[in-house]
Design brief:
It is a single chain. This protein has helices at about 90-100, 105-125, 125-140, 150-165, 170-175, 185-195, 205-215, 220-235, 245-260, 265-275, 275-290, 290-295; strands at about 5, 20-25, 30, 35-40, 50, 60-65. It is mainly alpha-helical. The strands form two sheets. A four-stranded antiparallel beta sheet has the order 1-2-3-4, with no helix packed on it. A two-stranded antiparallel ribbon has the order 5-6. The radius of gyration is 28 Å and the shape is elongated. One of its GO terms (cellular component) is chromosome. Keywords: Acyltransferase, Chromosome, DNA-binding, Metal-binding, Nucleus, Repeat, Transcription, Transcription regulation, Transferase, Zinc, Zinc-finger.
């Protein structure tokens, strides 16, 4: 497709103020006034698409070549010339040769990128989160001796930090479920990365998790709003000291569901939240002492508070 371009280096000698027209098919730049070819073999930096369908209106284009990746040297767009060899040099051999010619830093980044993309796919994460985690990995990995350290653990910790920075935190248990490393390893690398990169993170609150947990449990919006209010009031009144945001969120969801027409057991909530029934029960008992003050005033009880079970 022809398009108008403006260039500071290439101009028509007869009409220097005129815009140039780029002919992407011929690779030429032409003067819009006199059609003089003032530039040849222009490189098209746009996307290259091919359609393998016989229909001209097909909407299934396939990308030719890999996408730009800011993590690697040359942004992943550099060309590597392979060795001359027989025609039997297959794709797998070329892949091995390509990896062998990469620097150790780029190999680590490539492994981390693959690990991040696999975890993101399982957690249904947006591309921005993966890019943020990859950027953190590159910053931490550059110039440091990481011999004997697990790149997968570092990548998982970077993804956890990216969650927190984007205001959409996940739990360590959720991350461990889609990773190949233990929670202990992820937490250790998390502390190292935060310390070395001087990263400041806001503390997690129960409200950061309640909406997602309620959606996973299939609870109505009214229960979600009530659980959020219960958790906030419990933290404000300091009736759950020392309890983690996850425990408070789980107990608040349990309390709100018990007062509604959609009761949910501690076991079901624990399986979704990633905590034990005993932990939910202990936090719930602390909150029950102030239950009348925790619910929003507009909440319509289906079950009176006095009928709540404390067992």
């Amino acid at each position: 497709m022809d398009k108008l371009i403006q260039s500071n280096s290439v101009k028509c000698p007869y009409h220097p103020q005129a815009d140039l027209i780029e002919d992407s098919h011929a690779g030429d730049s032409l003067c819009s006034e006199c059609a003089l070819v003032v530039g040849e073999r222009t490189i098209d930096v746009g996307s290259e698409w091919r359609s393998f369908s016989n229909e001209k209106s097909s909407a299934d284009p396939s990308r030719v070549g890999g996408p730009e990746n800011l993590l690697f040297e040359g942004h992943g767009l550099s060309t590597m010339i392979g060795p001359a060899g027989p025609s039997s040099f297959g794709k797998l051999d070329y892949a091995k040769y390509y990896i062998s010619q990469m620097s150790s830093s780029d190999r680590a980044l490539k492994t981390a990128q693959k690990s991040l993309e696999e975890m993101a796919d399982k957690l249904h994460l947006p591309r921005t989160t993966v890019d943020e985690a990859g950027s953190l990995f590159k910053r931490f990995h550059g110039g440091k001796s990481l011999k004997g350290r697990s790149n997968n653990a570092i990548a998982s910790a970077c993804l956890y930090i990216a969650f927190r920075q984007q205001g959409n935190p996940r739990t360590f248990k959720e991350l461990c479920a889609v990773s190949s490393v233990s929670i202990k390893d992820i937490k250790r690398e998390f502390k190292r990365i935060v310390s070395n990169l001087s990263i400041t993170l806001n503390l997690n609150t129960p409200g950061d998790f309640i909406a997602r947990f309620c959606n996973s449990l299939g609870l109505p919006y009214s229960v979600q709003i009530s659980a959020h209010h219960i958790a906030e009031k419990a933290m404000e009144l300091d009736i759950v000291p020392g309890r983690s945001p996850i425990s408070v969120a789980a107990a608040a969801i349990y309390m709100a569901s018990q007062a509604s027409n959609n009761p949910c057991s501690r076991k079901v909530i624990g399986d979704v939240v990633g905590t034990t029934e005993a932990t939910i029960q202990q936090t719930y008992r602390l909150m029950m002492t102030s239950a009348p003050f925790l619910f929003p005033k507009s909440f319509k009880f289906s079950v009176p508070i006095k009928c709540f079970s404390q067992s």
